[in-house]
UniProtKB/TrEMBL annotation:
PANTHER family for the chain: TONB-DEPENDENT OUTER MEMBRANE RECEPTOR (PTHR30069), TONB-DEPENDENT RECEPTOR YNCD-RELATED (PTHR30069:SF28)
TonB-dependent receptor-like beta-barrel domain boundaries: 217-653
Any one GO cellular component localisation term in the record: cell outer membrane
Protein name (database record): TonB-dependent receptor
Gene3D superfamilies: TonB-dependent receptor, beta-barrel domain, TonB-dependent receptor, plug domain
Species: Azospirillum griseum
Length: 692
């Protein structure tokens, strides 16, 4: 099995961080939809060719002809922020749920919704450089929320400007440089429930044409559940050098060590009534996930009279020791090169903006499996090699046929090869080549500098990863299954902007899929098998609102603001021979998050409500559904003029027992259903951050 990891996030922050505000290239930036107005940025310098500031990135993101999201890292600095759920939890359309530790489900518009482990269907980038393995699988464990400056969310085909064309799109997590950091030094310590303690230190300097930044985080938790202890050690850094006024190169490096015990999935009754328990199988097998990852990358940017050329190169080495139903032992490399050229010119007096690029990526993994004997290797059962190669070219063009109306066209051509060989059982070898072309077209209208409306149509294509292609049977053997790719056409219409103290971001979309890769659990300890469905429909609404409702309540400059995020998911089979028009299992219909914030002179207090009126179906036959939930939270803190922030972050204050995530099955009446991950109980965290 080619595994990824999962770094999830759910931020109950002082105010909703909404997607990028509407703006033209010449219009002033609108901060209200993305800035946390109760916590202020300490300060940052000017951006550079390889690393724009958060404000510059938000302005560029606002030109996207489609649904996007932007999260300034300052918006969640007053929370524990341990996983990507704490980063992306306020972005509508992004469904993020914890399983345990930093393992989570991340799904955008139903991407990979049936995947019961790790990530599929969303491309993760760090500083614009892919983090996913070459086969498309994802790993969250090397992504540290404390090491980020901002995050960009490109839903669906709107990630084409970075080369992404999956159903879920792309999420770009950007780390600071010495030029964009909030301060030269940042020290942070926080902790609380379940034995949680984390320390993070960041230091940066500008030395003439040279600059550097290093961020290190050590995080420990005993976990809410038994056998869920976690220890993470993460280092991120970059070194930049300005070769000339128009040429800059920047090297990125990272070291990530993960030690995560696994508590396992439970039956529904146990998950709701005995949520802290671990399963007998994980205890007897001492199931765990230990990962050692090293990353090095470079981006070189050249400003020319006609535009800018950016060339990214990267190499990632990952060592995985993963005792589950068997001991999975993998060592592999992922590497690639990605040139990207952006330019502006006029056509018949009309402004035109063009992005063209390409990516060559490859991955080679030595994947072995052994009988699990109390968490140690027994007899070897698999000795395989997994090789993935991808060649992609893409282009996106925005032609402003009117000063306020842009026509967007684009497309991506790709060839992807997956090759598997088993040295112990050559008869199980297999390979498959995939080809595709994914076009897109859309319109962006800006009736006012702070208001946008858009409509677009895009095609996506998801290629099976090795966890899909090498299917594990109940007896522990592997078999190569040459699955079809997942294809979809997605139409969306939406608007975003700000007016009169109210900001909004609303999108409606509909995706028609062929060959959706769905999974079902064959055994609670064995990774799920994957099959191609016939025709399925994903449609929904992604909405976020924020408004200041009162000022001068108890002091001259105080404010009371409200925020609301609503994600509506309607995912169904479409005339399936077995399941008819049933709802697809794994994701609830409605997910809502509400907040009310009072802020004054650096002080803030924010009660929050997370509400899922009805839980998700657990099986494709729609016979078993988990209950809904209402979770109450409270965040409060004070930021002082000297750069010191103190905060308290309370979660699930009523100690509600609920289901956080599900590993889906075909029919709960006929198969085992130890597939549920209980949500964490009441938790209180506190922390202090000094930026100086």
């Amino acid at each position: 099995m080619h595994t990824g990891g999962a770094l999830a996030l759910a931020s109950l922050v002082a105010v909703q961080a909404l997607p990028a505000a509407a703006q033209t290239a010449a219009a002033p930036q609108t901060n209200a939809p993305v800035a946390l107005d109760t916590l202020t940025v300490t300060g940052q310098g000017k951006g550079t060719p390889t690393a724009p500031t958060a404000e510059q990135a938000q302005e560029e993101l606002g030109k996207t002809v489609g649904s996007v999201g932007f999260v300034d890292a300052e918006s969640y600095k007053g929370t524990l922020a341990n996983t990507l759920r704490d980063v992306l939890g306020n972005v509508p359309g992004v469904f993020v749920e914890n399983r345990y530790g930093q393992e989570l489900r991340l799904s955008v518009r139903g991407s990979g919704m049936a995947r019961g482990y790790h990530l599929r269907g969303v491309e993760l980038l760090q500083d614009g450089i892919p983090v996913n393995a070459a086969d498309g699988s994802g790993d969250f464990y090397q992504l540290d929320p404390q090491a980020l400056r901002y995050a960009e969310v490109f839903k669906g085909g709107n990630g084409l400007a970075y080369g992404s064309s999956t159903l879920g799109g792309a999420i770009n997590l950007v780390t600071p440089t010495a030029h964009t950091a909030i301060a030269p030094n940042v020290l942070r310590v926080d902790g609380g429930s379940f034995g949680t303690l984390r320390t993070s230190l960041q230091a940066s300097r500008v030395l003439g044409d040279l600059d550097f930044l290093v961020n290190a985080t050590v995080s420990h938790s005993d976990g809410y559940r038994k056998h869920a202890r976690q220890q993470y050690e993460q280092v991120n850094g970059n070194i930049g050098y300005r070769i000339s006024p128009d040429v800059e190169t920047r090297f990125y490096f990272g070291e990530y060590v993960t030690h995560q015990k696994l508590p396992g999935a439970l039956g529904l009754n146990d998950a709701l009534n005995r949520p802290t328990m671990a399963t007998a199988a994980v205890l007897s097998g001492d199931q765990a996930r230990d990962v050692w990852t090293q990353r090095i990358a470079n981006r070189t940017s050249v400003k020319m009279e006609s535009g800018q050329l950016d060339v990214a190169t990267w190499a990632i080495r990952k060592k995985l020791f993963h005792p589950i139903f068997q001991v999975i032992d993998q060592t592999g490399w992922t590497y690639g090169v990605a040139p990207r050229y952006t330019t502006q010119f006029t056509v018949g007096g009309m402004r035109d903006e063009l992005v063209v690029g390409g990516r060559l990526t490859a991955g080679n993994t030595k994947a072995r499996q052994f009988i699990n004997i109390n968490g140690s290797r027994g007899a070897q059962t698999v000795d395989s090699r997994q090789n993935a190669y991808n060649a992609e070219i893409f282009a996106e063009n925005r032609l402003y046929v009117l000063p306020t109306l842009a026509l967007m066209t684009g497309g991506k051509a790709q060839r992807d090869l997956r090759s598997y060989s088993d040295l112990l059982s050559p008869t199980k070898n297999g390979d498959r080549a995939y080809y595709g072309f994914n076009p897109k077209i859309g319109l962006l209208w800006e009736p006012k500098p702070t208001i946008q409306a858009f409509v677009n149509l895009t095609r996506s294509q998801d290629i099976p990863d090795f966890s899909d292609l090498n299917q594990t049977q109940a007896n522990g053997t592997l078999g190569f299954v040459p699955l079809q790719p997942q294809r979809a056409w997605t139409a969306e219409i939406g608007t975003r902007g700000e007016m009169g103290g109210v900001s909004w971001d609303v999108t409606a979309y509909r995706s028609v899929l062929r060959g959706e890769m769905l999974q079902y659990v064959t055994n609670s300890s064995v990774p799920a098998a994957t099959f191609n469905a016939d025709r399925t429909i994903h449609q929904g609404i992604e909405a976020a609102f924020k408004a200041t409702v009162a000022t001068g309540i108890a002091a001259k400059d105080d404010r009371l603001s409200v925020g609301q995020v609503w994600t509506f998911n309607h995912f169904t089979f479409d005339g399936d021979r077995q399941y008819g028009n049933n709802t697809l299992a794994g994701v609830p219909r409605h997910v809502l998050r509400s907040s009310l914030t009072y802020a004054n002179d650096g002080f803030y207090v924010t009660p929050t409500v997370d509400w899922v009126p009805q839980g998700a179906w657990a099986d494709q036959a729609n016979t078993l559904k988990v209950p809904g939930r209402t979770l109450l939270g409270l965040q409060a803190g004070k930021e002082f003029s000297n750069g010191v922030l103190v905060f308290i972050d309370g979660r699930n204050l009523t100690n509600k027992k609920y289901i956080s995530d599900i590993g889906t099955v075909t029919d709960a009446r006929r198969v085992a259903t130890s597939i549920f991950y209980p949500g964490e109980g009441r938790a209180v965290y506190a922390g202090v951050r000094a930026a100086f």
